[in-house]
């Protein structure tokens, strides 16, 4: 394929994927913060399209997801290039590839950090139960508020078993200042009971949310650090990273970090909405169809799991295959195809 046509199709796929992500996140944002609708005969009907697409949640989520995609793409390129450098394959090509990947990772990591910070602050008012669960806070914080680095919760008794706190940090993260308190889950639960009734359990899976919200930014910070140091140690004046296997291994293994960060981020987004399918309108319990059996659910989930596992395996196989071919595979193949056929009676055939 003509290289220009190839690049054009690559960018068309990128643009199409981003548009697809946008509309998926419009739907997800409605589930997080429903706007632009009326209830008609028990159904939610859209009455304001502009309100739906201008939902603040859309832009928090879209910016966060797209920056996460840049981080994932950049780290994948940098990591695969590092693997190839460890094998001493196409050195100059993969040195350049790794630096490009690290620049994209740095850009994406900074973007994720900024978008995530805005998204987290919006939760204080929009979804305070999710915010409190992410911080493992059952009780209202002091003022200033300490941030819990590690903790474990007794979800039955609704209390924290243990925790290690960093003073002032939660106030800084929440309000960008050294003062300010946040409501705990117990306080938020009372408000939700008053508003929606006491027939629901409003406490989300706290330990899953808490640790997901430690893993996600933890890996995000790791990728930011790896990208920044990687670019520093591959600069023209002193490109020492290329000569140190342990450094290359760190970059290579970080290939998988964005997948873990993005996955735990989605766990926070979706599980933190519990017990709602559409926040404040429609519960998970109401979403369960009475006509679908447990066996049907298990069967469909197993089929989907096997399908995506199979597709993922094929993708990994094809990526490895392309890496082994090397960057000059198509050029060499084309050159070989354009070689003139040898005359069987020519003396050169026999090396004479």
In short:
One of its GO terms (cellular component) is cytochrome complex. It is found in: Cell membrane. Helix content is 64%, strand content 8%.
Description:
The chain is 64% helix and 8% strand. It is mainly alpha-helical and 352 residues long. It has two domains: 3-131 and 200-287; 289-339. The chain is globular, with a radius of gyration of 26 Å. It is a multi-pass membrane protein. Keywords: Cell membrane, Electron transport, Heme, Iron, Membrane, Metal-binding, Transmembrane, Transmembrane helix, Transport.
Please tag this protein with its features:
352 residues, mainly alpha, 2 domains, two-stranded antiparallel sheet, two-stranded antiparallel ribbon, 13 helices
Mean pLDDT: 90
SSE sequence, one letter per element: HEEHHHHEEHHHHHEEHHH
How many domains, in number, for the residues?
2
User: For the CA atoms, what is the radius of gyration?
Assistant: 26 Å
How would you name the oligomeric state of the polypeptide chains in this document?
A: single chain
Query: Major sheet: size, sense and barrel closure?
Result: 2 strands, antiparallel
> What best-fitting shape do the alpha-carbon axes yield?
globular
Low-pLDDT windows of residues: none
The structural class is mainly alpha
Order the strands across the largest sheet as they lie in space. 1-2
Share of β-strand residues: 5-15%
Number of strands: 6
Query: What is the terminal-to-terminal distance?
Result: 37 Å
Number of discrete helical segments: 13
Helical residues, percent: 55-70%
């Amino acid at each position: 394929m003509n290289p220009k046509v190839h690049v054009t199709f690559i960018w068309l796929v990128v643009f199409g994927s981003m548009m697809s992500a946008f509309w998926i996140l419009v739907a997800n944002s409605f589930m997080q913060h429903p706007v632009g609708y009326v209830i008609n005969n028990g159904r939610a009907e859209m009455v304001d399209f502009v309100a739906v697409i201008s939902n603040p949640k859309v832009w928090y989520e879209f910016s966060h997801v797209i920056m996460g995609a840049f981080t994932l793409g950049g780290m994948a390129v940098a990591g695969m290039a590092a693997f190839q450098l460890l094998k001493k394959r196409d050195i100059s090509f993969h040195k350049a590839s790794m630096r490009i990947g690290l620049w994209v990772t740095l850009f994406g990591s900074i973007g994720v950090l900024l978008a995530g910070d805005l998204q987290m602050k919006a939760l204080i008012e929009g979804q305070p139960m999710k915010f409190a669960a992410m911080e493992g806070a059952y009780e209202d914080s002091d003022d200033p508020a300490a941030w819990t680095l590690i903790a474990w919760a007794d979800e039955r008794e609704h209390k924290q078993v243990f925790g290690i706190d960093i003073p002032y940090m939660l106030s800084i993260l929440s309000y960008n200042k050294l003062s300010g308190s946040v409501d705990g889950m117990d306080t938020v639960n009372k408000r939700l009971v008053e508003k929606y009734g006491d027939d629901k359990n409003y406490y989300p899976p706290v330990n899953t949310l808490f640790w997901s919200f430690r893993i996600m930014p933890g890996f995000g910070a790791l990728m930011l650090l790896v990208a920044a140091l990687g670019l520093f140690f591959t600069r023209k004046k002193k490109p020492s990273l290329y000569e140190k296997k342990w450094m290359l291994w760190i970059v290579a293994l970080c290939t998988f970090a964005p997948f873990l960060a993005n996955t735990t981020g989605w766990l926070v987004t979706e599980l933190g909405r519990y017990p709602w399918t559409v926040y404040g309108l429609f519960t998970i319990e109401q979403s369960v169809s009475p006509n679908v059996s447990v066996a049907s659910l298990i069967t469909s989930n197993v089929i989907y799991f096997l399908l995506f596992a199979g597709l993922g395996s094929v993708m990994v196989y094809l990526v490895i295959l392309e890496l082994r071919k090397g960057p000059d595979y198509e050029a060499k193949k084309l050159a070989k195809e354009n070689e003139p056929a040898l005359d069987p009676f020519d003396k050169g055939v026999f090396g004479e």
